[in-house]
Amino acid sequence: MPASPGLEAARHPVPEPTLQAVLWDMDGTLIDTEPHWLAAEQELCAEHGGTWDEALAHELIGLPLMVSAEYLQARAGISGTREQIVETLIERVTTRIADQGIPWRPGAAELLRDLRARDVPCALVTMSFSEQADLLVESLPAGTFSAVVTGDRVAHGKPHPEPYLTAMERLDVAPASCLAVEDSIPGLTSAEAAGVRTIGVEAIVPLPPAPGRVLLPTLEGVSVDTMRGILAGRVDEPSA
Length: 240
Description:
CATH architecture of the largest domain: 3-Layer(aba) Sandwich
Oligomer: single chain
Largest sheet: 6 strands, parallel
CATH class of the largest domain: Alpha Beta
Order of helices and strands: HEHHHHHEHEHEHEEH
């Protein structure tokens, strides 16, 4: 009599996927820079005599900077070219970070250290430009990020999958072996379109549930073991 499928599965369990890389968004996920961006956008709007729209501010979170500049032109009354708007925003945000230091999100720095200590490669996948990403990368021990993908180095930004596909290509890893950590809907959409299981950490914008997505209030209490459990579909919340 042939063995039942359940018995066969028990005899030959499917191995859990191995966590080979963690792919990190930056603004609002690793570091709490979204207030800096909002302040810079509001200042620029006021200087140009435009009308600020709080709903617009939320829509811009996670989008490529050139796309954000188009929105600011059309809906906030900011004049100048897209390039000029982006250059001004980056300069003001970068100045704030340089003056005030790296504003870490809760649990993010600790989790980065745990990943580094346990030899899990990380990539930075951000729509900020290289100038701002370098501030974070240069503040950390060498090798913290094995790959860096920025908004000025891709043809298609989030929510397109290109940023995450590029990061995985540089790390030589498959989507099934990765986790992406994001705080925005465009970012989550980008990672999931690339086939990556995601952790959504809410910052400013509420994040809806979706298949393969774990939503957490912060990264406090999240460890490498927690991430391995999330990748395997065994963990829905961080350990206490």
